[in-house]
Amino acid sequence: MYKINENYLKLQGSYLFSNIAKKVAAFKSENPDKEVISLGIGDVTQPLCPAVIEAMHKAVDEMANAETFHGYAPDLGYEFLRSAIRKNDYLARGVDIALDEIFISDGAKSDSGNIGDIFSKDNRIAVCDPVYPVYVDTNVMAGRTGEFVKATESWSNVIYMPCTKETNFAPELPKETPDIIYLCFPNNPTGSTITKDELQKWVDYANQVGAVIIYDAAYEAYISEDNVPHTIYECEGAKTCAIELRSFSKNAGFTGTRLGFTVIPKELESNGTKLNALWARRHGTKFNGAPYIIQRAGEAVYTEAGKVQTKEQVAYYMNNAKTIIEGLKSAGYSVSGGVNAPYVWLETPNGMSSWEFFDYLLANANIVGTPGSGFGPSGEGYFRLTAFGTYENTLKAIERIKNL
Amino acid sequence: MYKINENYLKLQGSYLFSNIAKKVAAFKSENPDKEVISLGIGDVTQPLCPAVIEAMHKAVDEMANAETFHGYAPDLGYEFLRSAIRKNDYLARGVDIALDEIFISDGAKSDSGNIGDIFSKDNRIAVCDPVYPVYVDTNVMAGRTGEFVKATESWSNVIYMPCTKETNFAPELPKETPDIIYLCFPNNPTGSTITKDELQKWVDYANQVGAVIIYDAAYEAYISEDNVPHTIYECEGAKTCAIELRSFSKNAGFTGTRLGFTVIPKELESNGTKLNALWARRHGTKFNGAPYIIQRAGEAVYTEAGKVQTKEQVAYYMNNAKTIIEGLKSAGYSVSGGVNAPYVWLETPNGMSSWEFFDYLLANANIVGTPGSGFGPSGEGYFRLTAFGTYENTLKAIERIKNL
Question: Is ipTM strictly over 0.85?
Answer without folding.
Answer: yes
